[in-house]
Amino acid sequence: MRRVCALALISSTLVLGSAASGDSSDPQLDRVEFLVQNGAPDLALRFLSNLQPDPSYSQKWMDWERLRFTIYREKQDWDAVKKRLEVLPSELPAHLMQTLLTQGIEVLIDSGRGDSVRPFLRELLWLGSYDSRQVAHWRRLTIRSYLSEGLLEDAQNAMASYQSEFLPNDAGWSLLYARVLLQAGYPAEAAEYLATVQSEEGLFLRLLSRLRSKADSPNQVIKQARAMSTKLPPQSPLRTGLRALLAEAALYSDELMLRVDALERFYQAPMPAHLKGLFEYDVDKLWQAYIRLGERTGNATNLLIGDDEPWLRLATSLTNAESIKARSIYALLAERTSNLVDQEAHHLRFYLSLKQSQREDTAIRLYTDKGRFSNVQQIPKAVRLQLVNLALARRNVTLAASMAVDLTNVGEDIDHLDWSLKRARLAIYTGKFKDSVQILQDLINGNAMLNKDSVDRILQVIFDLQAIDYQQAPYSLLNELYQRTSERGQQREILFWMGDALRGDEKFDSAAEHYLRSSLFDSDGRDMWGQTARYRAAETLADAGFVEDARRIYHSLLEDTDDPKRKAILERSIQELLLKDQEKSSTSH
Predict the structure, then answer these.
(1) Ramachandran region, residue 306 (left: φ > 0; alpha: ψ -120 to 50; beta: rest)
(2) Sequential DSSP letters for 405-449
(3) What angle do CA 551, 557, 561 make, to 5 degrees?
């Protein structure tokens, strides 16, 4: 039987329309949240646009709009945030308009798009507000927008104006001012300004200020940063800042092991938005640290560059506690070899070492940030395959699709059917329906015959296409699949699904024919499948205007069933046909 998995991930079967998160006052909103949570944000946005209430229902509309911004943030689609802010409905109450503009502005600032928010901030400030705290918040957002772009002079001017007007003396202002001073290159002044701030962020910024002003030695800062790290909650966003601080202190003290470890941990989580700009770290800094550590590790045992085998033996002999050194050797070998096969093997060892250390987020950053690999085709194929599987396991469809692009020849050790179906589903989830159809066509046409399991797995992806109402290709795909299976039971089912595809395309005559062929395929049509197909044929004949044919099939089904419920359904269908006849007769006179 057909297993509907329209919006499932590759490895799971989920039904469209299920509730996303338990009880909800709006089941339609649940439906969209379900799609987001299960890896189909683009499809969720399409549903959101179709189902969102009218803006006149302001509070309900607002709930949907918050979800829209959440989806944009998760997709990191900052252009969409900006465009949406530009077209917010003018009939919204002022307080809701202010709330959405403020939310969108904060999202864009967090993404480093400070330049795009200032027109909206000017609009908010021009409209004014009776709430002075709200106005002060917008003014501080303006300063943050300058900081996010590195426009330090503008930030300093805006701060001077704010200070003279509002006379702030709160800790939040002190932290903001200290960040500006640090980015402007005045660490000693920042440390002095933070002297009385006792919050965790204040202590962190003070540590950074004292390191850069050389008031404390790198080793002193490392010791204090480690002590502070032990006291922070596990999910504290300051942990990422402390890792960056440790990496900087390790650079000053030439502690290569600590630097690599700190940078790996740093890339495991995003830097909190309000701390961005304090550190100038791109992933090439980590690649460089690996290579330096790899050289140092090899030199310590007098290994010669150019002879890979002793280096590999050393790397594989290292314990788990020394996995960073092993990774450094793999990175060094990958950098120095000109043999593409060996280079890919070294990169795969490097990736798998990071995976074993549970630092896959760092691996993602190392291979996807622009710099060492300027485009996806330069990333070693073996690593791309690993990243696809990782992304699918995390339901990150966008990353999986970007890594899988044009990756058709994946080698003999990879199941070709499995890989092609993954690519086809990824194309569906990212809205590239024609690409999905082409992948399926190539897969089907590349096989003279397919076994039962292969046909069944291909069918699931075709059902995905039908579930999103993409009617342009499922029939032709099903027809080709029908030709490539010798399993009579599957052929019978496929005829039924072909009827569904034709009916969805309003080709009722052909659809009815396919249902009847399915019903009588190796059968007299009286078994359960046959009765279902005959019933669907009767419905479709009625749609096509063949009322007598439909009535005849309904009556034959009545004779073949003893189930009271089925009898009631059939009698109601016959009654509906009679009503249609009466309507047709009355309109003709």
Answers:
(1) left
(2) TT-----TTS-HHHHHHHHHHHHHHTT-HHHHHHHHHHHHHT-S-
(3) 150
CA dist., res. 290 & res. 269, Å (int) = 19
Nearest to 502 by CA among 552, 550, 548, 541: 541
CA–CA distance, 557 with 100 (Å, rounded to integer): 58
Inter-residue contact 410 to 385 (CB < 8 Å): yes
Instruction: Kindly report the pTM of this predicted structure.
Output: 0.67
For residue range 342-393, what is the model confidence (pLDDT) as tens digits? 999 999 999 999 999 999 999 999 999 887 898 899 999 999 999 999 998 8
Q: What is the pLDDT of residue 5?
A: 31
pLDDT of 280:
79
Extract the tokens encoding 395: 């339901």
Closest CA to 467 of 514, 425, 506: 425
* 104-116 tens-digit pLDDT: 888 888 777 777 8
DSSP-derived letter for residue 569 is H
Is 349 domain-assigned? yes
DSSP string covering 229-268, please? Answer: HHHS-TT-THHHHHHHHHHHHHHHHT-HHHHHHHHHHHTT
- pLDDT score recorded for residue 516: 93
Helix, strand or coil, per DSSP, at residue 112: coil
Helices (H), 484-563: 488-504, 508-519, 528-544, 547-560
Angstrom distance (rounded) from CA 508 to CA 127: 58
Is 480 part of any domain?
no
State residue 128's pLDDT score: 65
Run of H or E including 33: helix 27-37
- For residue 312, what are the domain limits? 282-407
- Vertex 557 angle, CA 551 and 560, to 5°: 150
| pLDDT > 70? residue 546 | yes
Instruction: Mean pLDDT check: name the lowest of 284-298, 494-508, 548-562.
Output: 548-562
Give, in order, the Cα–Cα distances in Å from 218 to each of 100, 225, 245. 44, 10, 10
Q: Kindly report, residue by residue over 270-323, the tens digit of the pLDDT.
A: 888 778 788 877 899 999 999 999 999 999 998 888 788 999 999 999 998 899
**Rounded CA separation 316/434 (Å):** 46
* Cβ partners under 8 Å of residue 243, min gap 6: 262, 263, 265, 266
Q: What's the structural domain count of the chain?
A: 1
309 in a domain, yes or no? yes
> Do the domain assignments include residue 39?
no
Q: Which residue has the higher pLDDT, 312 or 563?
A: 312
Q: Report pLDDT for 451.
A: 92
**In this structure, how many other beta carbons lie within 10 angstroms of the beta carbon of residue 586?**
8
Q: For residues 150 and 152, give the distance between their C-alpha atoms in angstroms, rounded to a whole number.
A: 6
